[in-house]
Amino acid sequence: MPIQNSPYHAFAALLTNNGHNVSPAELHGLLLGRSCAGAGFDADSWLADAKELFQSENEISDNVRNALIGLQEMVKGELTGDDMTVVLLLPSDDASLTDRAAALGEWCQGFLSGFGLNYRGVDLSTEGQEVLQDLAAIAQVQDALEESDDGENDYMEVMEYLRVAPLLLFTETKKTAEPAPAKPSLH
Q1: Are 94 and 149 in contact (CB under 8 A)?
Q2: Measured between alpha carbons, how far is residue 47 from residues 67, 117, 178 in Å?
Q3: What is the CATH classification number for the domain harbouring 129?
């Protein structure tokens, strides 16, 4: 079955085999949320946040650590690159719409958690606030998608939105973190 070969399934198996009962979608959402909130790309703080999500006292195994750092490198490249889109870590199209919609909701919850725990900037623009409200709404409607062509279309539209929405927040929080250039005085 091709579903077994998806990056999502591989990541889920890695997490489960290491005793972490966490959805890869929620983990990826957490990483993107914290990155968009200005947490930076320090591996140790990301690993600490991931460990908190795992709710585990145990050390993170090397293979999980390497996968988490690899995931962070991928996200860093997407957020700081030129191609203006993010690849979401979600189940492949072979999975049922119900499973994909649930993962989409988990992704949104993870994103909101990561963003909320790390955002220290000033007030967001109206657009930025709307993105966060949209994510909160998407996290709630995951059960509303039904196995149908309309359900598939709705899912694809939401996915497309989520591939660009984080970039808006990342760009906005980066602006508030950078000091404004000094203006020459007119004396």
Answers
A1: no
A2: 11, 14, 25
A3: 1.20.120.740
> Domain count of the chain?
1
Q: Among positive and negative, which fits the CA dihedral 173, 41, 29, 81? A: positive
Spatial contact of 15 and 59, defined as CB atoms under 8 Å apart: no
Q: Which residues of the chain have pLDDT under 70?
A: 1-5, 142-146, 176-187
- Which of 88, 87, 96 minimizes the C-alpha distance to 142? 96
Q: Which residues of 12-42 are buried (b: 16+ CB within 10 A; e: fewer)?
A: bebbeebebebbbbbbbbbbbbbbbbbbebe
Q: What is the pLDDT of residue 2?
A: 42
Is 186 among the domain residues? Answer: no
Instruction: Spell out the residues 6+ positions from residue 94 whose beta carbon is closer than 8 angstroms to its own.
Output: 1, 2, 3, 6
Inside any domain, residue 187: no
Q: Which residue segment(s) compose the domain that 130 sits in?
A: 2-174
Q: For tokens 């994510």, name the residue.
A: 135
Examine residue 184 and state whether it is found in any structural domain, yes or no. no
| Residue 176: both structure tokens together | 């508030």
- Residue 17 one-letter amino acid: N
Between CA 145 and CA 158, with CA 99 as vertex, the angle to 5 degrees is: 50
- Give pTM, 2 decimals: 0.88
